From TrEMBL:
Database matches in InterPro entries: FAD/NAD-bd_sf (IPR036188), Lycopene_cyclase_b/e (IPR010108)
Main subcellular location of this protein, as a coarse class: plastid
Species this chain originates from: Lupinus angustifolius (Narrow-leaved blue lupine)
The protein's name in its UniProt record: Lycopene beta-cyclase
UniProt xrefs under NCBIfam families: carotene-cycl
Keywords: Carotenoid biosynthesis, Isomerase, Plastid, Transit peptide
Length: 507
């Protein structure tokens, strides 16, 4: 969900990689080499400092991340332009979505090429998921760490304990597993950036920045949110996304107050802003929470998060709140192993369905509009899309062109999934209307539902009828102030949801 900014030239290899570090019982300097970090793009007038002399905890923002990600050392099957190869499927992007789909499609003997500027580079994002979601996909060996429970702090007097194991995904383990699957299945890789895609009736041409041209029956865009290859309805002038923004650090600390057998899914407490009246007032209107994963008593991942806002909350504001929170919790950051900035567009319209370019991952609309979760769902959807591709390109008839595009797009977004997404967008729009107290009341009721419902909602697994029951139950169990929030603040989002559902049903 998040992006690191480690942009300088590679340094000498550290004595331990990140995986070893996360499983090391204790940290002892010097464990990793110190790196020079690229200067913040914020102007000096917008940067801030909390005087370290006024607090023994100082300001962790002055510390520089020390972990330098390394590329994987795996022999790939490279695509050589001189071969004049033609492929069944060309996938743009070697992120989790692209590599997972390449692995799954190639299982059917379909000829796949994956194009990326650096296919073996480590993914910059950190991912968390419920353990059983990865277990069901055979990916339970791809965790850095798991916790038997999760907890939610609503305020100083109320919390919820969620009896569901949660895990931090190991980017290295997951990518290694998927890449090795690609290699075993004969996937070809090409190291380049895609500049342009041209379409004919039954074939597409992918033009790369080095002048090389690749041809294929189907092009899949898995290059992320910033892609320009996927088309949206031209009548939609404003996509109206919500935005999740966060600042996270994996840090060595003197100590922290969190239980080692529980990860903190959400901490909505705001007592850390008691001496910051301006920040407290702003946080009441546009709340942020802490997401925390304690690895041991001295190593912890901490992330201050704006669940969803429109327009996006200031990144500087998020970091200021995090500094105040850690100071209040008595957490002194000694070293930052890695840091990251997360900015996720949420909700908005789906791509035009169907169209000549298939999409998967961030640009395809699979991000959960209410939570920002995506990786587990993408891992689960890739085999479904791969099966649809195989029905067309793996058959003796070789179904291509419009029939192929329609088949694969509707495997990703069948009508029920489109209707369900309107429910999730309504959830996002509801959260956008709530202040801190309203948000607390919402999650107090939400996590009082049966785990099947709240977990199914977070994992995008509920059927349309189950989602309908969830919303009815949520309203029925809500406190009177929460019902007042829904009745007074959500009529317009509710009307939009019903309108969009009616349109989807007609189509």
């Amino acid at each position: 969900m998040v992006t690191h900014f480690m942009l300088l030239k590679p340094l000498p290899l550290p004595t331990k990689n990140l995986h070893q570090l996360l499983h090391s019982p204790k940290l002892s300097p010097p464990l990793l080499p110190t790196t020079h970090h690229k200067k913040s793009s914020l102007s000096s007038t917008t940067q801030f400092r909390i005087n370290s002399s006024t607090s023994k905890f100082g300001n962790f923002l002055d510390l520089k991340p020390e972990y330098q990600p390394q590329s994987l050392d795996i022999d790939l099957h490279w695509c050589h332009p001189s071969d004049q190869s033609r492929f069944d499927v060309i996938i743009i992007g070697a992120g989790p979505a692209g590599i997972r789909l390449a692995e799954q499609v190639s299982l059917y003997g379909i000829k796949v090429c994956c194009v990326d500027p650096n296919p073996l580079s480590m993914w910059p994002n950190n991912y968390g998921t419920w353990v059983d979601e990865f277990e069901n996909l055979g990916l339970d060996d791809c965790f850095d760490k798991t916790w038997p429970m999760a907890c939610v702090y609503l305020d100083e007097g109320r919390n919820k304990f969620l009896d569901c194991p949660y895990g931090r995904v190991s980017r290295k383990k997951l990518k290694e597993k998927l890449i090795k699957g690609c290699v075993s299945n004969g996937v070809r890789f090409y190291k380049a950036k895609v500049w342009k895609i041209e379409h004919k009736e039954f074939e597409s041409r992918v033009l790369c920045d080095d002048g090389v041209e690749l041809k294929g029956s189907l092009v899949v865009d898995a290059s992320g949110f910033g892609s320009t290859f996927v088309e949206f309805d031209h009548r939609v002038k404003k996509r109206n996304h919500g935005f999740q923004i966060a600042h996270g650090i994996l840090a060595e600390v003197d100590e922290h107050p969190f239980d080692l057998d529980k990860m903190v899914l959400m901490d909505w407490r705001d007592s850390h802003l008691g001496n910051e009246p301006y920040m407290r007032a702003n946080n009441s209107k546009f709340p942020t929470f802490l997401y925390a994963m304690p690895f041991d008593s001295n190593l912890i991942f901490l992330e201050e998060t704006s669940l969803v806002s429109r327009p996006v909350l200031s990144y500087v504001e998020v970091k200021r709140r995090m500094v105040a929170r850690l100071r209040h919790l008595g957490i002194r950051v000694k070293r930052i192993v890695e840091d990251e900035k997360c900015l996720i567009p949420m909700g908005g319209p789906l791509p035009q369905i169907p169209q000549n370019v298939m999409a998967i991952g961030g640009i395809s609309g699979v991000v959960h509009p209410s939570t920002g979760y995506m990786v587990a769902r993408t891992m689960a959807l890739a085999p479904v899309v791969a099966s649809a591709i195989a029905e067309c390109l793996g058959s003796t008839r070789m179904i291509r062109g419009k029939q192929l595009y329609s088949k694969v797009w509707n495997s990703l977004w069948p009508i029920e999934s489109r209707l369900n997404r309107e429910y999730y967008i309504f959830g996002m729009e509801t959260l956008l209307k709530l202040d801190l107290n309203g948000t607390r009341r919402f999650f107090h009721t939400f996590f009082d539902l049966k785990p099947y419902y709240w977990k199914g909602f977070l994992s995008s697994k509920l059927t349309f009828m189950e989602l309908t029951c969830l919303y009815i139950s949520l309203f029925g169990h809500a406190s009177n102030p929460s019902k007042f929030d829904i009745v007074t603040k959500c009529p317009i989002p509710l009307a939009k949801m019903m309108h969009n559902m009616a349109l989807e049903s007609i189509v």
